[in-house]
Structures are given as structure tokens and as C-alpha cells.
Design a protein that fits this description.
One of its GO terms (cellular component) is Golgi apparatus. By secondary structure, the protein is of the alpha/beta class. It contains 16 helices and 8 strands. The protein has 2 domains: 59 residues; 279 residues, Rossmann fold (3-Layer(aba) Sandwich). It is globular. The structure holds 2-acetamido-2-deoxy-beta-D-glucopyranose (NAG) (3 copies).
């Protein structure tokens, strides 16, 4: 951290040496004086304005004690550390039980400590989601996140009871967790165009979920296998969600419907594919690494996710599934519950950070 004194000295050196350096570059004496004066004024104005820009002034004047580090860890950097997760490698024999492994945030990471991420307990999650409407829409990956979320808020036994309904092939699933008044909808939306239709429907009804997680890709890759077309639909989806965003200068949009509360929106990325163990010939042929990258490229080219300047927060299943590794999947595309559980806790922590809530 730079103290005010060092900053002053640095400024003085710049005023003195930059014009001298320029003089070496055959500038006339008048030009040197002009640059010197201009630099001096710029720096002086900068120093006097600094107190009015809190993030910058706290950066240059705060002493480096750990409490200040915690306070100055900002929202965005915490969001960027959320995927710093490791999976336990001890129990690496995958035996059909999805709960063999455990995971945690890397504690070697200073950012993670400062951000104070936590695996939410059932009651914390209930507090957080009390009274809210959660929609998860997409293909089988989204369904697996629903399982993790319901296991957390309903408990394992209750979840086992509803598992049959949830896994009726290619169907929607709706439930209400009465204890906390949480409404949850899973919408089977295997193509990105299905997601766009859903967003348009919400906009027409002017009725928006509080939390909206969406993601489609694998199904499209298998049944359409055309990354360019996929990109076109992703761009259309992006256009359709832009008017739902909170009003901020970076997303200045005309034609904004009256959204009372903006939903918290997430994009569920595709997992790492392990081509050799995909379970049909057709999948092995179409779902290649090259095709995976071509599809993934469309997500950032279209600026759908925030890491690339877009509106949705990416739940990076590719990163999580590669960290969990080969031993976490039997079919090369659906991973053990631990991966989706981690994704779900990343989502809940992102919600906590975004809503600036703190659990007591
Ligand atoms: C899988 O492994 C876990 C823990 O090692 C064990 O509790 C469980 O019974 C095993 N399941 C099967 C189907 O073998
Ligand atoms: C949910 O919120 C309602 C009203 O805000 C409250 O009465 C209830 O106790 C809460 N339930 C849980 C489980 O937190
Ligand atoms: C999803 O979109 C496809 C292609 O537009 C359409 O054929 C299909 O009926 C839609 N599925 C659902 C569940 O809406």
C-alpha cells in the first residue's frame, strides 16, 4: 500500500523527471516547462479529488491490517474467487453412489478467506430463500442442480420421495417447499430458443422469478451439432434478458419494461466432456472436444456471461467438473452430485454477496 508521503514523493519525481526525460528527446525548453506545469496541475487536482473517490483513496491510504483487507475486498473480486474449489481426492473410486466425495473452497487463497464464503446449512438456506420463487431451466445439468438445491432445503429423505417425479424424462417439475414458502420450477428447456421463449413469457406476464438459473448446450450439441446456429440463439437469448437487468450505466437499455425487482440470473455452463466414456457411438462422434470449444466460444463471443461483459453470472460447471475429474463421472457428461452441490453453494454465496446480506 502506498502511504500519502510516498505518493507525494512519487508525484514530485514524476513532475521533475518526466519533462527532463522529454528534454532528452529534443523538446524545447518552453515545451518542457509546459509539460511540467500540465503534469503538476494534473497531479495536484488528482491528489485533491482523491478523497471524493472512496475506493481509490482507501486503496492509497489504508494501513495493511487484516481487518482493512477484509473490508476492502470488494464484491466483484469475491465473485471471481467463488469457483476456487477443490474436491477431495481420497475417495476416488466412483461406485455409483453420488455422494462419495466432498469439496471445499481452497483456503490457501487469501481472497477466499476475506470473502468469508460458507456452505450454507439448511436453516441458512431457508432464511435466504424464504418466500422466493426460484426457476431453473435447461437440460439435464439444470435438473441435477435442482436435486442439490432440494436436498439442501428439504433434506435427503424428502428429496428421495420426490426424485421419481423430478426425473420423469423430459418433463417440467413444480414444487413448493411449504416450510419456507419457496416456489421452485424446473423447466425442461433443452434448446437455447426454449429459454428465450421462457424469458419472453415472463416479460409478457410481467412476472419474474427472484432467482433464475438457465443453461442449455449438451442437448443441442448432440441433436443439432452446429455451433454457429447455437451462437445465433445465444445472442437472441442475451437480447431478451437485457431489459430485465437492474438499471446501471453499463447496461443502458431503451424499451425497458417495468421490472419491479430484477431477478438474480445465472448461466449454467456445460461440463467437461470425457469423449472416450460417453455412452453411445453417436455421442462420441458428435460431442468432441473441438465441438465443445466451438459451443463454448459462442457463450463468450455473444457476451452472455459477466466474465465477458454480459448480464448472467456464470456457474462454471466446466471448471468444477474438471477439478473433480474423471473419477466423478460414469458417462463422461453427467457428474456426481458433489459437482452440482458445489455449483449450488456458489450460487447461494453469489446471492448473498449480491444482496449484501450477512448471516448472523
Ligand atoms: C460406495 O462407497 C461408499 C463410501 O465408500 C459406500 O458407503 C457405499 O455403500 C458404496 N456404494 C456402493 C453401491 O457400493
Ligand atoms: C419466512 O418468513 C416469514 C415471514 O417473513 C416468517 O414468518 C417465517 O418464520 C420465515 N420462515 C423461515 C423458515 O425462516
Ligand atoms: C424447444 O424448442 C424446440 C425448437 O424450437 C421446439 O421444437 C420444442 O418444442 C421446444 N421444447 C419445449 C419443451 O418448449
Amino acid at each position: 500500500m502506498l502511504g500519502a508521503v510516498q505518493f507525494g514523493l512519487l508525484a514530485a519525481c514524476i513532475v521533475l523527471f518526466v519533462p527532463m526525460g522529454m528534454a532528452g528527446w529534443h523538446l524545447s525548453r518552453n515545451k518542457v516547462l509546459f509539460f511540467s506545469g500540465a503534469l503538476f496541475i494534473t497531479l495536484a487536482v488528482g491528489v485533491h479529488l482523491t478523497p471524493y473517490f472512496p475506493p481509490f483513496s482507501s486503496f492509497i491510504s489504508s494501513p495493511s491490517s487484516s481487518t482493512v483487507v477484509v473490508a476492502s475486498v470488494n464484491r466483484d473480486s469475491c465473485m471471481s474467487f467463488l469457483h476456487e474449489i477443490e474436491f477431495d481426492r481420497k475417495d476416488s473410486i466412483f461406485n455409483g453412489s453420488y455422494s462419495g466425495k466432498s469439496w471445499k473452497w481452497l483456503d490457501s487463497n487469501k481472497g477466499v478467506v476475506g470473502c468469508d464464503f460458507q456452505k450454507l446449512s439448511r436453516s441458512d438456506a431457508s432464511d435466504l430463500l424464504n418466500g422466493s420463487w426460484v426457476v431453473l431451466a435447461g437440460d439435464s445439468q439444470a435438473r441435477l442442480v435442482v436435486v442439490s438445491l432440494l436436498e439442501l432445503v428439504m433434506g435427503l429423505e424428502e428429496m428421495e420421495r420426490v426424485r421419481g417425479d423430478l426425473f420423469k424424462r423430459h418433463s417440467d417439475y413444480h414444487t413448493t417447499v411449504d416450510a419456507i414458502g419457496m416456489k421452485l420450477d424446473f423447466i425442461w428447456a433443452p434448446y437455447v430458443s426454449n429459454l428465450t421463449d421462457l424469458v419472453v413469457e415472463f416479460r409478457e406476464k410481467r412476472y419474474f422469478p427472484d432467482v433464475f438459473v438457465m443453461g442449455a448446450g449438451l442437448w443441442d450439441m448432440l441433436h443439432v451439432n452446429n455451433a454457429m446456429e447455437y451462437g445465433v440463439s445465444v445472442r437472441m437469448l442475451k437480447e431478451s434478458v437485457m431489459p430485465l437487468l437492474p438499471v446501471t450505466p453499463e447496461f443502458d437499455i431503451k424499451d425497458r419494461p417495468e421490472v419491479v425487482r430484477s431477478p438474480h440470473m445465472f448461466w449454467l455452463g456445460m461440463p467437461m466432456l470425457i469423449n472416450l466414456i460417453l455412452n453411445t457411438e453417436e455421442k462420441r462422434e458428435k460431442m468432441t472436444d473441438a465441438m465443445w470449444y466451438a459451443y463454448d466460444e459462442q457463450i463468450y463471443k455473444s457476451k452472455l456471461v459477466r466474465n465477458f461483459g454480459g448480464p448472467l453470472f456464470l456457474l462454471d460447471i466446466h471448471s468444477l467438473s474438471s477439478r473433480c475429474g474423471r473419477s466423478c463421472t460414469t458417462d463422461g457428461m453427467h457428474y456426481g452430485g458433489v459437482v452440482y452441490e458445489a455449483a449450488m453453494h456458489i450460487m447461494l454465496n453469489a446471492l448473498l454477496i449480491e444482496s449484501q446480506q450477512r448471516l448472523s
